[in-house]
Design brief:
single chain, 469 residues, Jelly Rolls, 5-stranded antiparallel beta sheet, 10 helices, 22% helix, globular
């Protein structure tokens, strides 16, 4: 047997170079769904000698507000059109040239994804047992959700996506209102499924039950333990929409399948796709599909790779999720402020480098009165050279009176050099820390609202062995 996972263990060292010339015939077409909606697609089929049983294939699924043309550029640019696979890209329902309305990877979209798989498997020139799927963000959610719904993908790869949509959009019961509004506004109102407007209103009103029910139908996390399909996950170091925890929880749940987790520089804001390490990421993705769709594999013990904050052509590789150690930082003081006010606390310089990895927490006492209903914490750092770093943010609903709350900040990886000073900003929104910080919007609150914030204790999970130097 060919030891394909040796390739996986080393592929992240390299950045893909020139794109190979296509040896596939390309065809644009339309695939009808069972409700009469037409899905626009592009099919690439190799023009070489067809293998017995048909060509192995990969379906590429785009992000929210994206289209198949972006996926066509991706597969052509990163050498997936080299003649080994049939490739299918398609405009998701409500996107591009496809009909229908957008329901955010709900049951209707998963039915579409199943129909796309079955349509491709029914072709005589495509293998019906060797079809894989690659999805980014919205497309990654569809890959995970279709996988746990029983679509028989032979191998999958996901990039910067979710497995638990509730915890991504409404962690601890407080909506990341800026993100929710941004996602909704990225789709034209005429293409909204009616459920979208209803769930946005519910999220802003704090109706956790309605949002949880809606999100559960679009989440895979509770069903991943039964998956045996090979799963490659690429999550961003700094992605404040879908944090590292979305993939880390999935990694723990995937106990019965071959798996590989790559934490890299790509991601939703404040990161981007492509990023400096995307060449290496796509090279590893291609090796993953080669391994599970083309040739038998020998398992490797390497199942986690983490890119440093500045890409130099190599990722740190290990077996299992990396161990962390907590660093506690106290922020003493008592501050009372109104709805438009804030409390700002700054630490002494940290005594050593810290590479935050995971979910920082902030425990703080608060007295709420006059209709005060939420508390948002934003963590920033200023390096010895004067550079400001937005590290993370989080928020929780509050009730009237005195209470102690623990705020889980967004799960990410950020390198903080020795001598940096940490700053915690408490307010009713992230806008209070910086007008461009739109994670938690300044939603209405009574003019009489007041908050009294006491001493806070920050716990930072830091990598025991630094990846960034």
């Amino acid at each position: 047997m060919k030891v394909c996972l040796v390739v996986l263990a080393t592929a992240l060292v390299f950045v893909a170079g020139e794109a190979a010339g296509s040896t596939l015939a390309r065809q644009d077409l339309s695939i009808p769904m069972d409700d009469g909606v037409s899905i626009a697609a592009t099919l690439y089929v190799p023009d070489g000698t067809q293998p017995a049983g048909g060509w192995p294939a990969i379906v590429f699924l785009h992000g929210l507000a994206g289209n198949r043309q972006q996926m066509n550029a991706l597969v052509e640019g990163y050498r997936f059109t080299g003649g080994d696979f049939a490739i299918l890209t398609f405009d998701a329902r409500g996107h591009g040239e496809s009909g229908g309305l957008v329901g955010i990877d709900g049951p209707r979209e998963i039915a579409d994804t199943r129909a796309i798989h079955d349509w491709l498997a029914a072709r005589p020139d495509v293998s019906d047992t060797r079809i894989g799927a690659w999805g980014i963000s919205y497309g990654g959610g569809a890959v995970f959700n279709s996988l746990v719904a029983g679509v028989p993908w032979a191998a999958v790869a996901t990039v910067q996506t979710w497995t638990d949509l509730y915890s991504a959009l409404m962690p601890q019961g407080l909506a990341r209102s800026g993100l929710v509004a941004g996602l909704a506004s990225s789709i034209p109102p005429t293409r909204h499924d009616p459920s979208l407007n209803a769930v946005q209103s519910a999220a802003f009103a704090g109706n956790t039950g309605a949002v949880r029910e809606w999100a559960a139908a679009r989440s895979s996390i509770t069903k991943l333990a039964s998956v045996t399909t090979p799963v490659f996950m690429a999550q961003g170091r700094r992605d404040f929409l879908f944090g590292i925890d979305q993939a880390a929880r999935a990694f723990r749940q995937l106990r019965n399948s071959p798996k590989l987790l790559y934490v890299g520089l790509h991601g939703n804001a404040p990161s981007s796709f492509p990023a400096d390490d995307t060449g290496g990421l796509m090279e590893t993705t291609r090796a993953w599909f080669n391994c599970y769709l083309l040739t038998p594999c020998v398992r490797s013990s390497i199942d986690v790779a983490i890119a440093p904050e500045k890409w130099a052509g190599r990722a740190s590789q290990r077996t299992g999720l990396p161990p962390t150690r907590p660093t506690s930082v106290a922020f003493p003081g008592v501050t009372t402020f109104a709805r438009s006010g804030r409390a700002v606390r700054t630490s002494a310089p940290i005594r050593s480098d810290i590479e935050v990895f995971g979910t920082p927490t902030v425990k703080v006492s608060i007295g709420a009165r006059g209709g005060w209903s939420r508390l948002v914490a934003v963590l920033t750092a200023r390096t010895p050279r004067g550079r400001e770093i937005f590290v993370s943010a989080g928020g929780v609903p509050t009730k009237p009176g005195a209470q102690s709350v623990t705020i889980n900040l967004a799960s990410q990886a950020t390198f903080l050099p020795k001598g940096s000073r940490l700053t915690l900003t408490f307010a009713s929104s992230s806008n209070a820390q910086a007008s461009a910080n739109l994670l938690y919007l300044d939603l209405p609150m009574a003019q009489s609202a007041r908050a009294r914030v006491g001493t806070a204790v920050l716990k930072l999970p830091g990598l025991r062995t630094l990846v960034t130097r």
